Give the backbone structure.
Amino acid sequence: MSYRLSSLVLVLGLLGGCKVEMPERAKFASEHQELLSDADVAADVAEDAVAPDTPGADDGTDTAATDASAETTDAGGADAADPDVGNDGDGVVATDTADSADAEPVCAPADCDDQNPCTDDDCNKVKGCVHLANAATCDDGDACTVGDGCGAGACVPGAAKGCDDGKVCTDDSCDKTAGCVNLANAATCDDGDACTVGDGCSAGACVPGAAKGCDDGKVCTDDSCDKTAGCVNLANAATCDVGDACTVGD
């Protein structure tokens, strides 16, 4: 462009500053016009050499209709790629949530039973099985504890089981599986009858011993035994012999 401008300035200077006859002036203008045409071609070639045209480049011929068509194609492509996503016309993209709402639950209540009496089991559609600790009564599996209860999701042992049967003729203990065990012994005992002596245990019970002797060896007493009081020796009015031959009617 600078080359063509310089040539034009030169021509105008020549035409304006020199006195040239009309035929000569016309001839000079014609020849210079040819020079200008040749200069234009050379300038175009030089420009193409420096920055060749890029195929597909924007040459200024794009129209608003073409741009609108491209945008429409892009929008259609997005909808075609994802049928669950669409534009509702006000610029807000709507997502189809029917699939998530109708999704199958990840578990069923029957599948969530952990066989633990100390948890309440349930099925959560998002989290799956949930097991919440409760405060229910339970059995810790130890026959020697009573009053077991749930704590922090586990069965906590209660108090020790009382296995004393109150009998002197048994040895009492507790087995974790069988529970209380009361084994007979052979200890001495008291059958509660004051008229027996030498009572002893047999087969877990107190067996009375021999009868208690209450005879005091006195003829003037009536001897007996009371089960509660034991021996009873009551005076009587029987005849007796004091052992003195000089007396009668003792």
In short: The radius of gyration is 65 Å. The CA atoms of residues 240 and 246 lie 14 Å apart. The chain has a mean pLDDT of 74. Helices lie at 2-17, 22-50, 64-81, 98-101.
